[in-house]
Amino acid sequence: MRIAVTYEDGQIFQHFGHTQQFKVYDVEDGKVVASEIVDTNGSGHGALAGFLFNGQVEVLICGGIGGGAQMALAQAGIKLYGGVAGEADAAVEAFLKNELAYNPNVMCNHHGEEHHGNCGSQGCGEHSCGNH
Questions:
Q1: Mean pLDDT over each residue of the chain, to the nearest integer
Q2: What are the start-end ranges of the H helices in 33-76?
Q3: What residues contact residue 62 under an 8 Å CB cut-off, 6+ apart?
Q4: Longest alpha-carbon distance in the chain
Q5: Which of 131, 92, 110 is closest to 12 using CA atoms?
Q6: Which pLDDT tens digit goes with each residue over 84-121?
Q7: 73: how many CB neighbours lie within 10 A of its CB?
């Protein structure tokens, strides 16, 4: 299995469509056997789903993500775990233990605004409705 995480400085990057890098993990028998940081080469929003599909990614862990990108991932057969914050490596370990706290209803719907830093503080990612 291949798992990708939106990535910046060891942390989960909070805006899928603006991510510059993914950390991709190869998993066998429930354990990470290899990982690498992959540059998106400027691909944005919709193109990122194809980028992940071409990289044979099956699971994406990220912060905020818009509806169009969610649909593109679903069409590519990539399972989404959004609304996640913190260290990328820790999130993958939690996922492998079935302990990952994520928000199945995550939405990022303020695409007209400029984003600076952590999108989570603008309501993109974790919400007060709680993570499941």
A1: 83
A2: 45-54, 67-75
A3: 5, 6, 12, 13, 14, 16, 19, 80, 81, 82, 84
A4: 43
A5: 92
A6: 999 999 999 999 999 999 998 886 654 443 333 333 33
A7: 22
Amino acid at 65: I
Task: Answer whether 69's CB lies under 8 Å from 44's CB.
Answer: no
- pTM attached to this predicted model: 0.80
* CATH class in words for 2-122: alpha beta
Whose tokens are 């990612």? That residue is: 125
**Predicted confidence (pLDDT) per residue in 61-93, tens digit:** 999 998 889 999 999 999 999 999 999 999 999
Say how far apart CA 97 and CA 104 lie, in whole Å.
18
Inter-residue contact 12 to 62 (CB < 8 Å): yes
Domains in the chain: boundaries = 2-122
